[in-house]
Amino acid sequence: MSGVATPLVVRDARAADVPELLAMFVELAEYEDLLHELRATEKQLREALFGEHPAAEALIAELGKPPAVVGYALYFPTFSSFLGSRGTWLEDLFVRSAHRRAGVGSALLAAVAARVRERGGERLEWAALDWNEPALHFYAQLRAQTMPEWITHRLDGQQLDRLADEHRPR
Does 75 participate in catalysis according to the annotation? Predict the structure, then answer.
């Protein structure tokens, strides 16, 4: 090429993207040293994103000709009782290592923010691992607020089952 930069395209994920999304889930899990926790399957992801009642949405970032998938954002709706309005939880923002620091993450995050506003939302939230300095620096540059007074909690597996069992009629 004659020095012309290949445009970055951010688009809605399609069902045909499911295998590539799952491959990036693996890359993210490896980066976060959480591969042992990855259980998602193509069938589950296809249903979650494109089934009768989608649980989440995804955006895909592409570069080049032919286009190569270089990142994704996975997000789903939330609601704030205090604001009385919708918001969005960004579950994943991932850019393949060869394409980091090239504006891909910013473009994906901007596209998610635009979706939030288009839908009348007032809040976009996410979590980052405390050791992920590149991500924390990136978010600080965006002037994202760190919410130190809020600590994320989780119930899953046996703990979730145990609590759910307390609600079952005896």
Answer: no
